[in-house]
């Protein structure tokens, strides 16, 4: 079973649980816009490791995500599960703060093809002028749209920010407003405390609100058991990340233009699935006269090589 088919199957099971089990637990109608009051606490509080989680701004946002925006956040986390698991695994490999898993919620609702009015693109919302040296973009390729490569790029950028500022809240905010703007704010304020900067007008409204949103989402989800308001966790009953082999693929190298739809038809797999695996190919084909690795469902390399031979005949 391919990566996305496994993901879809898992999501179906979880949505069945949401519609048939969770409503009874929540004691609210299925059509309700908000979650219930917390009456079923099942865990002790989990510290996130950052200051300000109990600040009025964060608490207000967290309560909103648990009530009026509950269904919205639940849906984002549920649909994002295949990407969330990959992001989580990469964060753990690099030893980065676990709350970074929720940054794409704030950035793009975990949508790989998201585009802002300002031109920020992809799950991690890179601007075109900020992709180097992390990602490649040209007339045929926009790696900002690749959820796996852009995750690697974003985590590298965040670590780079941390190396500059020595503080994760500043590093995360700099991801939003830019390292230059953050350096100017720190210099002007004479402080490296995020909460001082945000509460005293040294940051733009957008930058000042960025970390509180992230902390609120992380607190609501990571402490779902404590608050008694469930969210998709992508973990099993023991707390371990569910094994969907996130980010495990096969690849086939081509040296000329190949249509992704034509390859999918030759492979007799769903065209949309192969497109989702190769979102960076903005023209729907690999670049001509250039080597490129097409991402494939795991276990399909030999079949793809045979299919490409047929397409070349």
From TrEMBL:
InterPro entries listed in its UniProt record: Lysozyme-like_dom_sf, Transglycosylase_SLT_dom_1
> What are the alphabetically sorted keywords of the record?
Signal
Q: Where is the Transglycosylase SLT domain?
A: 94-196
- Entry's Pfam families? SLT
Top-rank taxon of the source lineage equals Bacteria
Any signal peptide, and if so, which residues? 1-26
Protein name listed in UniProt: Membrane-bound lytic murein transglycosylase D
